[in-house]
Amino acid sequence: MDELEISLEGRDGGCSNLTRFMVVGKIHAKKILNRKGIFNILKGIWSGDDILCIREVEGNIYAISLARERSYRKALAEGPWSVIGCSIQFLRWDKVDSISKMDFSSIQYWIQVHNLPMEWLSKKNVEIIGSRLGKVVEIDDDLVRNGICRSFLRLRVELDLGRHLVEGF
């Protein structure tokens, strides 16, 4: 049997404002969560005029069109977010691949490292700890902010959702 090939065209300008700053979010939950509840929570994360459109793609996966680049960057940088006790992770959509082909097999979290002596609060030690959990993406080793000294360091770690967490953390 011959393969059927169809060439399609993109819409002229009609959707560009909806896809310009679009993120795709997946809620990591064992069951499908209430769509109306999710819409209300997502609308609460950003101010009303920041969200152009929220679309449920398939159970627990949502496409969110944002009006401003600042909001787009916030969605990607400050997550994952909490929705009804579950994590929602936002990824960039490259506008080429289907949303259903996006890879949500890992998630990034900010982690705080506490209870180390001050002289051990180093970037290298935090990197060693973080690498036991997953892939270290970023380290915030600024101990002093606005004249206040912190007793912990933060790091952003990418965790493989197919693996169990390391015990003892």
Molecular structure report:
There is one protein chain. The protein has 169 residues and is α+β, with helices and mostly antiparallel strands. It contains four helices and ten strands, in the order H-E-H-E-E-H-E-E-E-H-E-E-E-E. The radius of gyration is 20 Å and the shape is globular. The protein folds into two domains: 16-101, RRM (RNA recognition motif) domain (Alpha-Beta Plaits, 2-Layer Sandwich), CATH 3.30.70; 107-160. The strands form three sheets. The chain has a five-stranded antiparallel sheet with strand order 2-3-1-5-4. A three-stranded antiparallel sheet has the order 6-10-7, covered by helices on one side. Strands 8-9 form a two-stranded antiparallel ribbon.
Summarize this structure briefly.
With 169 residues, this protein is α+β, with helices and mostly antiparallel strands.
Describe the SSE topology.
Blueprint: H1 16-19, E1 22-28, H2 35-45, E2 51-58, E3 61-66, H3 69-77, E4 81-83, E5 86-92, E6 106-113, H4 123-133, E7 135-140, E8 144-145, E9 148-149, E10 153-160
Antiparallel strand pairs: 1-3, 1-5, 2-3, 4-5, 6-10, 7-10, 8-9
